Amino acid sequence: xxxxxxxxxxxxxxxxxxxxxxxxxxxxxxxxxxxxxxxxxxxxxxxxxxxxxxxxxxxxxxxxxxxxxxxxxxxxxxxxxxxxxxxxxxxxxxxxxxxxxxxxxxxxxxxxxxxxxxxxx
Length: 121
What we know:
Elements: E1 5-10, E2 13-18, H1 19-30, E3 36-42, E4 49-51, E5 61-66, E6 69-79, H2 84-103, E7 106-118
Helix pairs in contact: 1-2
């Protein structure tokens, strides 16, 4: 279970955290961040980007465990007219804090791939 689960040890035994649990939690935190419209799914065959519904947020996030540190890759759609740098900084800081608190594991790296821009009414 090298890359799909993080592992912690307590005095009672092992605690395994599945990557999908981390992805779902990180996605729910991310969509609450300023300037983030949602997670994106990219069809590699034809290059079409689609906005994921709230129930499928984890599909826009790749989670890798590297020596029990978490690497997150976000594929996002941002709001039109916002500073991508500001949105990215806010996303990184918010997700890093919340995921570390939730899992008890350290975030090693967060990569953000802006896959699209949407006008929000």
